[in-house]
Amino acid sequence: MSESQPEQRTPFDHQEQEGAKPPSRSFADALRQVNARMVLGVLAAVALIVFIAQNTGEARVNFLGWDWDLPLFLLLLITIALSVVCTEIASWFMGRRSRNR
Length: 101
Known about the structure:
There is one protein chain. The longest helix has 29 residues, at about 70-100. The protein is flat and about 80 Å long. The protein is mostly helical. It is built from three helices and two strands. The chain has helices spanning about 25-30, 35-55, 70-100, and strands spanning about 60-65, 65-70. Helices cover about 55% and strands about 10% of the residues. A two-stranded antiparallel ribbon has the order 1-2. β1 and β2 (about 65-70) form a beta hairpin.
């Protein structure tokens, strides 16, 4: 009755392949790697650039006694960002509340 031991393997040595040329990828291979998230990201970036280019006028902001003159696109982007943050905080709080029940 001999006890079988797992075969001992040496770890992969990355230094042996330092001089090796990486495999070349064709344009078709690169296109296969494109996914919907990338396409939506590019479309959102283009839409944001168009939005900024079309909304460069100044807007006056009065808040709690302070007065600011901001470009309209900046004012809208700040409003959107604060809305997202408030929504995330509210959803986190509501999720935490439902888990405690």
